Amino acid sequence: xxxxxxxxxxxxxxxxxxxxxxxxxxxxxxxxxxxxxxxxxxxxxxxxxxxxxxxxxxxxxxxxxxxxxxxxxxxxxxxxxxxxxxxxxxxxxxxxxxxxxxxxxxxxxxxxxxxxxxxxxxx
Length: 123
Fold this sequence. Notes:
The chain is an all-alpha fold. It has four helices and no strands. The protein has helices at 8-14, 33-46, 60-73, 75-86.
């Protein structure tokens, strides 16, 4: 198990929410869902292209196809809601609208003086 792979407690919450866990299987045998989830999370966490997925996670096309199919079926929303209910400390979000960007932040114009929109005038 790699450092950021799903823990047992997370897997017990997620497993019943995945399609195909009801026992009805048709076609070829599926690659292990837990392995595919770990592959998807690896790509989302690292930003690596799907084709550069390490071999321990299986074929990258399998992970990519399941990611897309599950997104269309609403599986991801169900997973996130279930994890938020069961593990409230697992979600931490930062809203970029409250993060102050300073003058020297990337994309700032060089040589332009930033003036405040309201200026206090003393008598």
